[in-house]
Design the sequence.
C-alpha cells in the first residue's frame, strides 16, 4: 500500500509539474497557432473536470479564428463528450448545433459530425426517452445517407438497434444491427469497436432464438477478445478482461440452455461466476442473475432459481424477470405466489403499454414527418429537372435581357432623379407644415398663458378687494368725530381692520408661496424634527378657530417620532388642512390622525371632519387655484393648491378620501428617510 501511495503521489506531482509547465508555455507563446496543441494537451490533463471545458472552449474559439478545422472538430467533439458524461443536455445540444453550423458552412461532414449525433441518441436512451432517441437516430440515418458515409450509416443503425432493443422490440433491433454490421465490415479493421458492437447486439439475437447466428457472433466475439487483449498488452494498457470474460461466458451459457445442452451451460455459468464474485457493477450482475435463475429452472432446482431471480428484481423490475419468476413459481407448485406475481406483471405491463402507446404515437408523427420529407425531396428533384430544362431558354434570352437591362437602368436613373427632387420638395413641405404646427401650438400656449394671467389677476383682485374695502371702510369710520362712536365700537372696528389686514396678508403670502412653488424656487430645509410635537404645535395654533360645539382631537400612536422634514412646510400643510376643516365644521369633530407605515417607508396623516363635506363632482378640481367649496366663506381658495405643491416638494402626496361621506377627509403621505439631496 505504501508503494502504491507513493506512486500515486509521484504521478500527481508529475501531472502538476507538467500542468504548470504547459501553462507557462501557453502564457509565453505569442504565435496563436502554436497555442492550439498546448490547449488540447492541457484539456486532456483535466479529464471530465471544469478546467477541461474551459480549455476546450478557448481551443474552439482560437481555432475558429484561425480557421483550423481539425482543432475545431476535435474541440467540439470533446466538449460534447464532456457535457454528455456530465449530463448537461442543453450544453450538449448547443455544442452540437454549433458544430453543425460550421460543417454546413464548409460543406463537410467529418466523423465527429456523426459521433456527436450518436452521443445525443445515447443520452436520450440513457434517460429512457426512446421516442427522441429513435427520432435522433433516424435523423442521423438520413444525414448518413446524404453523405454516403459507411461509418455514419453503421453508427445510425447501431443507435436504432439499441433503442429498439431497450423497448423490447428485438425483431426490429436485429434488422438494424445486421445493417450496421454490414457497414462495420466495410470499414478499416477495428477489433475494439467490433467487440463493443457484437456485445451490444447479442441479447436481441438470443431473445429471437437465432441460435446459429448467435453462435457465430459469440465465436467472433471470443476471437476478437483475444486480439484486443494482445493489442492492449503490447501497449502496456490494462484491458476490461473481467467484463468481457464474464459477458461471453454468460452468453455462451444462455445459448447452450436454449440449445438444451445443460452440461455445457453449467460449465460456462461456473466460469462466469469467477468474474462476478468480486464485482460491484450492477449492469454485470443483473443479466447474470437471470441466466443463473434460468439454469436452475432447467435443472429443477427451484429454490436457487427463486433466490437468483429475486436478486435481479432487487436491482431492477422488468417484465421478462417477472415472467421467469412466474414460470419458476408454477414449476415449484407455488400457485398463490405465482398469482401475486402475475398481478405485479399485469400492473407493470399496463404501465409499459401506456408508455409504449405514447411512444408509438410520437413515432407515427415522426414517420409522417419522414414521409413528408421524402415527398419534399421528390418534389425538389422534379423542380431541379424543370430548372435544368429552363436553363437553355434562359441562355437564349440573355442578350435580350441585357438590352432590356440597359433600358431599364436609364429609366431607373430618370426615376431616381425625379423621385429625389420629389422627396426634397416633400421634405420642404413637411418642414413648413411642421413649423406651422409648432407656431400654432406656441400661439395657443401664449393665448392660454394670457388667459390664465388675466383670470389670475381677476381672481386675485376679487380676493384682495374684499379685505381692502373693509380696511378702508372701517378706517374712515374711525376717522369720524370722537363722540359719534363709542369706545367699544371703535375697538370692534379696529379688530375688524386687524382681522381683514391679517386676511389680506395671508392672501398675499399665499400668492407669493404659490408663485415660488410653481416656479420651483423653494428648496426644503430638511432636518430631523419630532413630528408628534409639530402636530401638537399646530393644534395649539388653530385652537382659536374651532367653534364651541366642535371637538378637536389628536391621539398619537407614540409620544415622539423623529422625522426628516421641513418643519415650516410640514406645519403649513397641517395648518391649511385643519383651518379648512374649522371653517366648514359647525358641530361634531375634527380629528387629526398619525399613522406609521414602516413597510411602505412612510407616515400617513389624515384630517377628518364632520362638516358639510365636498361634493363628489368637485373632487377632481379641489386642488386647483382659487377653487372654493363655498364662495361666501372667507378665504382665497389657495390653501389646498399650496399644500399639494408642498407635499410634492417633500416627495409625498396629498389627496381627498372619496370613500368618506360624513364630511371631508384629506390624507397627507410623507416619506421616511427624506434628505436634502
Sequence:
Amino acid at each position: 500500500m505504501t508503494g502504491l501511495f507513493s506512486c500515486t503521489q509521484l504521478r500527481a506531482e508529475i501531472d502538476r509539474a507538467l500542468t504548470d509547465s504547459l501553462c507557462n508555455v501557453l502564457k509565453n507563446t505569442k504565435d496563436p497557432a502554436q497555442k492550439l496543441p498546448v490547449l488540447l494537451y492541457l484539456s486532456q490533463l483535466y479529464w471530465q473536470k471544469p478546467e477541461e471545458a474551459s480549455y476546450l472552449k478557448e481551443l474552439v474559439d482560437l481555432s475558429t479564428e484561425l480557421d483550423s478545422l481539425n482543432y475545431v472538430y476535435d474541440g467540439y467533439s470533446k466538449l460534447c463528450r464532456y457535457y454528455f458524461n456530465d449530463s448537461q443536455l442543453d450544453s450538449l445540444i448547443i455544442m452540437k448545433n454549433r458544430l453543425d453550423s460550421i460543417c454546413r458552412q464548409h460543406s463537410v461532414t467529418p466523423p465527429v459530425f456523426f459521433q456527436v449525433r450518436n452521443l445525443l441518441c445515447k443520452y436520450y436512451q440513457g434517460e429512457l426517452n426512446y421516442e427522441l432517441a429513435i427520432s435522433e437516430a433516424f435523423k442521423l440515418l438520413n444525414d448518413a445517407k446524404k453523405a454516403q458515409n459507411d461509418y455514419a450509416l453503421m453508427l445510425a443503425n447501431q443507435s436504432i438497434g439499441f433503442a429498439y432493443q431497450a423497448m423490447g422490440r428485438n425483431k426490429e433491433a436485429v434488422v438494424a444491427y445486421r445493417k450496421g454490421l454490414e457497414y462495420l465490415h466495410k470499414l478499416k479493421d477495428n477489433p475494439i469497436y467490433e467487440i463493443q458492437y457484437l456485445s451490444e447486439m447479442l441479447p436481441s439475437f438470443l431473445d429471437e432464438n437465432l441460435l446459429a447466428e448467435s453462435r457465430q457472433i459469440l465465436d467472433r466475439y471470443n476471437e476478437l477478445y483475444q486480439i484486443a487483449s494482445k493489442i492492449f498488452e503490447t501497449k502496456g494498457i490494462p484491458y476490461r478482461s473481467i467484463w468481457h470474460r464474464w459477458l461471453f461466458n454468460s452468453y455462451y451459457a444462455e445459448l447452450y440452455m436454449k440449445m438444451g445442452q445443460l452440461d455445457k451451460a453449467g460449465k460456462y455459468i461456473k466460469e462466469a461466476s469467477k468474474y462476478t464474485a468480486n464485482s460491484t457493477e450492477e449492469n454485470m450482475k443483473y443479466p447474470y442473475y437471470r441466466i443463473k435463475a434460468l439454469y436452475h429452472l432447467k435443472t429443477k432446482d427451484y429454490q436457487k432459481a427463486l433466490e437468483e431471480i429475486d436478486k435481479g428484481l432487487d436491482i431492477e423490475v422488468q417484465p421478462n424477470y417477472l415472467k421467469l419468476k412466474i414460470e419458476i413459481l408454477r414449476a415449484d407448485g407455488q400457485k398463490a405466489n405465482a398469482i401475486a406475481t402475475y398481478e405485479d406483471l399485469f400492473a407493470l405491463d399496463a404501465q409499459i403499454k401506456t408508455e409504449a402507446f405514447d411512444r408509438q404515437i410520437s413515432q407515427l408523427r415522426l414517420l409522417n414527418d419522414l414521409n413528408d420529407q421524402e415527398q419534399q425531396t421528390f418534389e425538389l428533384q422534379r423542380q431541379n429537372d424543370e430548372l435544368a430544362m429552363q436553363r437553355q431558354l434562359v441562355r437564349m434570352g440573355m442578350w435580350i435581357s441585357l438590352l432590356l437591362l440597359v433600358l431599364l437602368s436609364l429609366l431607373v436613373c430618370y426615376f431616381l432623379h425625379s423621385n429625389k427632387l420629389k422627396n426634397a420638395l416633400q421634405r420642404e413641405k413637411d418642414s413648413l407644415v411642421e413649423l406651422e404646427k409648432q407656431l400654432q401650438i406656441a400661439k395657443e400656449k401664449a393665448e392660454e398663458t394670457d388667459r390664465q394671467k388675466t383670470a389670475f389677476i381677476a381672481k386675485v383682485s376679487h380676493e384682495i378687494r374684499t379685505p381692502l374695502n373693509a380696511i378702508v371702510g372701517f378706517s374712515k369710520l374711525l376717522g369720524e368725530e370722537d363722540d359719534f362712536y363709542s369706545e367699544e365700537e371703535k375697538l370692534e372696528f379696529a379688530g375688524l381692520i386687524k382681522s381683514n389686514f391679517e386676511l389680506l396678508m395671508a392672501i398675499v403670502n399665499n400668492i407669493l408661496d404659490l408663485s415660488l412653488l410653481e416656479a420651483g424656487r423653494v428648496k426644503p430645509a430638511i432636518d430631523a424634527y419630532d413630528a408628534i410635537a409639530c402636530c401638537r404645535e399646530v393644534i395649539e395654533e388653530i385652537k382659536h378657530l374651532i367653534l364651541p360645539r366642535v371637538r378637536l382631537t389628536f391621539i398619537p400612536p407614540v409620544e415622539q417620532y423623529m422625522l426628516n422634514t421641513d418643519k415650516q412646510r410640514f406645519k403649513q400643510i397641517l395648518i391649511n388642512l385643519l383651518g379648512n376643516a374649522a371653517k366648514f365644521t359647525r358641530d361634531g369633530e375634527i380629528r387629526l390622525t398619525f399613522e406609521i407605515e414602516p413597510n411602505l417607508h412612510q407616515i400617513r396623516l389624515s384630517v377628518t371632519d364632520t362638516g358639510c363635506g365636498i361634493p363628489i363632482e368637485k373632487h377632481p378640481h379641489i386642488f386647483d387655484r382659487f377653487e372654493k367649496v363655498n364662495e361666501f366663506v372667507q378665504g382665497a381658495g389657495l390653501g389646498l393648491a399650496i399644500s399639494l405643491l408642498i407635499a410634492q416638494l417633500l416627495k409625498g402626496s396629498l389627496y381627498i378620501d372619496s370613500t368618506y361621506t360624513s364630511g371631508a377627509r384629506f390624507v397627507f403621505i410623507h416619506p421616511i428617510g427624506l434628505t436634502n439631496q
Summary: The longest helix spans residues 398-478.
